[in-house]
Amino acid sequence: MQIQTAHGAAEATLDGPHRPAFLLVLTHGSNGGVDAPDLLAVRDVALGLDGAVARVMQPFRLAGRRAPGSAVKQDEAWLEIVEALRDRFGDVPLVQGGRSNGARVACRTATAAGAVGVVALAFPLHPPGKPEKTRVDELRGAGVEVLVVNGDRDPFGVPDAADAAQVTVLPGERHDLNKDPGEVGRAAEPWLRRWAASPARAAR
Q1: How far apart are CA 92 and CA 15, in angstroms?
Q2: pTM for this one?
Q3: Which of 36, 59, 109, 169 has the fewest CB neighbours in a 10 Å radius?
């Protein structure tokens, strides 16, 4: 699905039913793609819970850039993308998330997007070796409950338990969370299950 935004075209890869229990919108890191192992693991869990999943390639990546640029423009484009996806799937609970930079976008825009929760994979708490440049306010300011899944060897840091509703730390994992993606999916499963039998779904 191609989506035009004020800051360029985006592309959403859609999986799941047309009338889902919930909609999960996921996106990549600053130099990654929508086929990252951890994103695919969470997608598979959501599909098993009767959710629809949109994996979004943001405009900067679709244009071939490796850096997202202005956070304001990135967030503006994201909200346009989410609006288009919600128009397609109707009034079902929206959960948004992503890995690394994508997790930051999901946190920053959660309230404006009307999300009920955020899945933050490999949240980059600070640049490597620069803990003083913390991004913890993005987590704490999401305005909705956030699930964080990080590896204990992540050079970008690991959020504290108090920084989000739930912080799951996977032993032996680094920033790419690709040692055992199934563990990432298992961490997300109970979090997503709460929306698998939503009132909107039951009323249909």
Answers
A1: 15
A2: 0.94
A3: 169
Find the length of the chain: 204
Alpha carbons 150 and 143: distance in angstroms, whole number: 20
**Residue whose C-alpha is closest to residue 56's, from 43, 65, 69:** 43
pLDDT reported for residue 119: 98
Q: Examine the pLDDT at 200 and tell me if it is beyond 50.
A: no
Residue whose pair of structure tokens reads 């930079």 in the numeric block:
101
pLDDT for the residue numbered 202? 40
- State the CB neighbour count (10 A cutoff) for residue 76: 16
Scanning the structure block, which residue is given the tokens 């504290």?
160
DSSP 142: S
Report d(CA 160, CA 178) in Å as an integer. 22
**59-68, 155-164, 189-198: segment of lowest average pLDDT:** 189-198
Structural domains of the chain in order of their starting residue, each with its CATH number: 2-195 (3.40.50.1820)
Name residues whose C-beta falls within 8 Å of residue 184's C-beta, 6 or more positions apart in sequence: 37, 38, 41, 42, 121, 149, 170, 177
Residues sharing a CB contact under 8 Å with residue 31, sequence separation 6 or more, in sequence order: 66, 67
H/E stretch holding 66: none
